[in-house]
Amino acid sequence: MKTGIQKFGKFLSAMVMPNIGAFIAWGFITALFIPVGWFPNEQLATLVDPMLKYLIPLLIAYQGGKMVGKDRGGVIATIATLGVIAGSDQAMLIGAMIMGPLAGLIIRTFDHAVEGKIPAGFEMLVQNFSVGILGMILAIIGYYLIGPVMATILAFLAGGVAFLVQQKLLPFVAIFIEPAKVLFLNNAINHGIFTPIGAEQAIETGKSIMYMLETNPGPGLGVLLAYWIFAKDKATKSSAPGAIIIHFFGGIHEIYFPYILMNPVVIIAPIAASVVTIFYYTILQAGLTGPASPGSIIAYLAVAPKGETLIVLGGVLIASVISFLIASPIIKLSGAKNLHDATDKVKEMKAEAKGLEKKTDEIKKIVFACDAGMGSSAMGATKFRKRIAPLQTGITVINTSVDNVPKDADIVVCQTVLQDRAKASAPQAQLITIGNFLSDAKLDALYAELEAKAKNSHGVVETTKETKNQTSKNDIMSVQGIQTGLQSVSKEEAITAAGNLLHQLGYVDAAYVPAMLEREKTVSTYIGLGVAIPHGTTNAKQSIQKTGIVLLQYPKGVDFGEGKAYLVFGIAGVGDEHLDLLAKIGSVIEDETNLEKLKQTKNPEEILKMFE
Asked: What percent of the chain has pLDDT over 70?
């Protein structure tokens, strides 16, 4: 049941969270320009109603439809939700959260039903008309059925909130909120429930207390302060100040969850603090003009209404003091606790809540993906494959284009800029986004998990010496393909020079050079450590005559945007012939002495010898 709730909550919040910026923009416009705002402006105040009634619901609907039915799902969801909006006088945020995924599901079902059955040449006609016709039907249903029904449900919910406020019962919602946060339902509660309801309330009064229920940083701050002062474990004590900064100013509440799990009884502190603070806000009829996301003190105060900043700040202070006073004696009387174990527990719970992470014993295939699947991903995969080889895990490590990730991939490693394409290509896989295929903390963490599992399974893992590849690399990399002491040029000129050298040496035909430039526009080939490995797009593979690698040395560097590249390796690969040399390049440049020698030496023979 818990897993089901977590997945459902994650789905709800996933529709809202990408659009929080729109909520914040609406909240700022409301706070600034309505008649009781900071700078009343009759013209700009007219933006408030259409943003809430049309813009935000349509954004939510598009996101929900796209999650279920990809781009076509997003389009039909927007069409259908407009009917829901027109069929009610209220803001249809919750209506959009229902209609969006429903419309996405319908178009996805239709696409599956007609797959392989559309006559050649009629594909676009069917695709366009199916979205138009089904969208129209759903819009009509939304107007006459879903809109009025949702208006009734919203009236009931608004009445329920009003009843809780009138009966002074709203503060006791904290009894459920704080434990749910530790179970990683915080985003589901805040963005899936409180934010839509808060928006409905804000229409009437320009603010809502619902925005304050989950996001107050005070309860977590009190717990962290108590650990900082009274924790007996030195590691826990020393880690608390950093956690305070991340929590209070960064708004990342998850940072204090391990401290709760070390002493579960400590949960009493944030619960009591939240109960009292919500009661305080209720008495003073406080609220925020928009969602405070993330829940930092900066965001919290930024959306405070005109004249209520001190009231809002007072609630944070009250929550911090009460949480601190209750947590302190519990921590003082408890024995030393291990923050490391609690943090591991949090990772497991967060993974379960997201429904993404896999246990190490379930990992069978790791895929390194880049745009073309030939350069940076090949180097990263080869290096990681050799790194885990002594662990004898039986895990397959491959590289591929980000758009062609196999369906049996358990983990996909890619650059951050490619994460959306990776998710679309392999939605079933855990995604690890990195900035550097050669050296990244996330890859180190993955290796550590696999190593720990291997030790548990096999005992002590002995590191085996890597056998030297006896295959001659003279045909892949030669002295003629190494140029040193070049003057700094633009990124495009350096890539063109590498491509021309590949062409001159017979590795590729002339069409490969513009493909290398096109590849760079998609995602940078700079991989860190002052190294870039430009290569062609996937479509340019037919331009490769044989596998080859060239090296251009720029002692003063070439600006690749993400960093300066002093070594530019031009790559053209047929099959897997270049992988061993890429792995060798990775191992050579990891050594700082070797890297500096590569950047400065003027002797191509010396460079070639380093890669033998």
From this structure: 82
